[in-house]
Amino acid sequence: MATFGFIGTGNMGGALARAARKRLSGGEILLANRTAAKAEELAEELGCQAADNAVVAAKADYIFLGVKPYLVAGLMEEIGPVLAARKGRFVLVSMAAALTISDLRARGCGDWPLIRIMPNTPSAIGEGVIFYTCDGVTPEEEAGFLENMAGAGRLLPLDDHLMDAGSAVAGCGPAFVDLFIEAMADGGVACGLTRPMALECAAQTLIGAARLMLETGRHPGALKDAVCSPSGATIQGVRALEAGGFRSAVMEAVIAAYEKSAEMK
């Protein structure tokens, strides 16, 4: 089995490490973080090994670069000599928002095999969306990445130039969805439900509606129409959402996130 190393164990790096642990043994995962105690805490939780950046760079077959975009160049300057001294192949895996393959190579990733990914936080529980694109990676290396990250959720290939668009939907989307869940729960509380009951009800309703769409393949508009009986309560609620600009607000949120990603390059 391959060794997966994570440099950066924040929200996203930690989520992917947890997903990898579902397929890999503790001995096949290395964790490093600028604050060592954070990596050590996660290593204890997952039963794997805490290390420093140099050890991850020297030993891991897949090296996840879980740092902010503006820190990538500095990280590559630090670990570049270690990588250059290696004899065998390895794959760099970047989750730095907005940085394209060419951006990453210009920031020190050189000609080494590279996978760019855009994951989201539900990856920690196996329900994530992870967009990925490969450059200089063999079919066997891609297959190994997909096999060992399958515990994160749906891994979807996406062209490099569309990564920011995908991230605006799936990467930022959990925050938008959480806001919707909270708003639905607030409505339930206003109508008399307890807060815990309203939150559970809203969250499960969203899960159920999403799974119904994915598993039946039906268009969400058709599923919405199936709930909206003539002169019923649901269509009046839909009318209120439309009056409040619900669809436009969601579209504008996605577009705003996409445009911000462009500014971060």
From TrEMBL:
Top-level taxon of origin: Bacteria
EC number(s) on file: 1.5.1.2
Compartments (UniProt record): Cytoplasm
Alphabetized GO MF terms: pyrroline-5-carboxylate reductase activity
Claim: Repeat is one of the keywords in the record: no
Residue ranges annotated for the Pyrroline-5-carboxylate reductase catalytic N-terminal domain, each copy included: 4-96
Involved pathway(s): Amino-acid biosynthesis; L-proline biosynthesis; L-proline from L-glutamate 5-semialdehyde: step 1/1
Keyword Oxidoreductase: yes
Catalysed transformations (reactions): L-proline + NAD(+) = (S)-1-pyrroline-5-carboxylate + NADH + 2 H(+); L-proline + NADP(+) = (S)-1-pyrroline-5-carboxylate + NADPH + 2 H(+)
Domain Pyrroline-5-carboxylate reductase dimerisation: 161-264
Keywords in alphabetical order: Amino-acid biosynthesis, Cytoplasm, NADP, Oxidoreductase, Proline biosynthesis
Entry's family note: Belongs to the pyrroline-5-carboxylate reductase family.
Function statement: Catalyzes the reduction of 1-pyrroline-5-carboxylate (PCA) to L-proline.
Protein's name according to its UniProt entry: Pyrroline-5-carboxylate reductase
Organism this protein belongs to: Oscillibacter valericigenes
